[in-house]
Amino acid sequence: MAARAAAVVATARFGLGAAPGEIAAAATDPRGWVRQQLVPQAMPPALAGLPDGGERTRLFLAARRAMQEQRRDRPAAADQPPRAALPPGMEQPREAYLHEAGLRMRAQIESKAPAIERLVAFWSNHFTVSILRPPVLALAGAFEREAIRPHVLGRFEDMLLAVARHQAMLLYLDNALSIGPNSRAGRRRARGINENLAREILELHTLGVDAGYTQDDVRALAMILTGWSIARLDDADPGGFRFRPLAHEPGDKTLLGKRYTEDGEREGIGALKDLARHPATARHIARKLACHFIADDPPSASIERLAATFRAAGGDLAAVMRALVGEDAAWAKPLSKVRPPAELVVAALRATGYPAATQGDGRRLIGALRRLGQAPFAAPSPAGWPDTASDWTAPEAVVRRVEWATALAGRFAAEIAPMELFAQSIAPASRTETRLAVERAASARDGIALVLAAPEFQRR
Q1: Using one digit for the tens of pLDDT, what is the confidence trace for 104-131?
Q2: Which residue, 191, 212, 200, 206, is CA-closest to 170?
Q3: What pLDDT band is residue 33 in, cutting at 50, 70 and 90?
Q4: Residue 349 falls inside a structural domain
Q5: φ, ψ for residue 123, nearest 5 deg
Q6: How do 253-255 and 241-243 pair as beta strands?
């Protein structure tokens, strides 16, 4: 593959789309351009100093308590006065979500290490929490900053443990309220075990749906994870992770043929570490990475090599990524993947050199993503957003993409030369027909729209 075409793969498939000058920088050594980014990075300035998950959870718990007290104290008469304004905290989650989602996009658009930002987005989607569950609304950004970002080049088992203990995941999949039926709390209360987190850990996060585990294994892991919860307002460190011994199911449990003796919180830590090291997990993770970085239907040989690296490196994700960059299949077919809306919007704004959130456009961009069908942190299920072309190329979705590209082009028509945009984004991998169409465009607006709507820009 010619160096400049390989640079398009580097910046589009391993990065988030080329910023001005990035293709030229990557062309010297496209694989090296990616590898040099695979080192620990500081928190992006846009995301530094934001409230952590504990603080956001304390606000949520305080607001929920205030609402409960308001309902209890409300007069029962039919002619009762109108409901009072929401207490402090209940109006904040949506504002927190919009603010942080906009800053997250800013971090992606302005990043000098876009390969890291792509990995953060990939793993955040792998371990999905969704704002479709209201308690997650203000926590999704903190979840990504705290449970995902620090571990994208670390060990998989450390990320898995951070995810399973984070407030957003415990609330999203209901484990915060899961109680062992034979625990002291379970014998006193009607509420019992919840299997949601255990099921998704086995099916989505580690082994994969085809790994041969049973419903008994789901229930065993759910029992093991009982008591993994969140500190209440009256507890020490309210809003933080808390293991509740009185809610933990007593006794030994058997998961995937291995007996876990009663050991409180350590029981769950041991089980998660074993799942992270399981051969089925290595293959499941390898398949997902290959699908994301190589092709919708990646070569089985690539999957096997990545799985072998995962096992040999003890789940070291930096080693797995270095192996992935070395896979020839990842470079053999440029533009074999379709950009989902979130990637498309970020790529367009990187290409135009436009720092969206610095211009106060964070909310506008989130609205655009909602119309395009991929609002931040709003995946429809714990499986996350899909990663194959067929999920993003329905006729109506394609029309919305073209409409968005045309509207964006209108905003930049006075600032950007279409052929310059073409040259620094897709030219090395484009067809002659695309170049001619941009050259012959009737206006700057039309030319920019043709670049952004071109198949070469819509794919990576």
Answers
A1: 999 999 999 999 999 999 999 999 999 9
A2: 200
A3: very high
A4: yes
A5: -75, -30
A6: unpaired
Residue 231 lies in a domain: no
CB 226 within 8 A of CB 265: no
> Tens digits of per-residue pLDDT, 303-326?
999 999 999 999 999 999 999 999
- Neighbouring residues of 98: CB distance < 8 A, sequence distance ≥ 6: 362, 363, 366
CA 171 to chain centre: 17
CB-count exposure of residue 173 (10 Å: 0-12, 13-18, 19+): buried
Closest CA to 356 of 400, 399, 412: 412
**Could you tell me if 141 and 377 are in contact, meaning their C-beta atoms sit under 8 angstroms apart?**
yes
Query: Looking at the chain, how many residues does it have?
Result: 460
Number of domains composing the chain: 1
CA atoms within 13 A on the CB side of 167: 30
- Does any domain span residue 72? no
Distances (CA, A) of 259 to 224, 252, 274, 428: 11, 7, 12, 57
**Per-residue pLDDT reduced to its tens digit, 349-396:** 999 987 554 456 778 889 999 999 999 999 999 999 999 999 999 999
Which tokens belong to 36?
Answer: 């040099």
Q: Which alpha helices (DSSP H) does 28-138 contain, by range? A: 30-35, 53-73, 92-110, 114-126
- Distance from C-alpha of 383 to C-alpha of 200, rounded to nearest angstrom: 8
SS3 content of the chain, % helix, strand, coil (to 5): 60, 5, 35
Residue-range definition of the domain harbouring residue 378: 341-458
Q: Is residue 396 part of a domain?
A: yes
Q: Which two tokens stand for residue 104?
A: 């997250």
Most confidently modeled range among 93-102, 189-198, 246-255 = 246-255
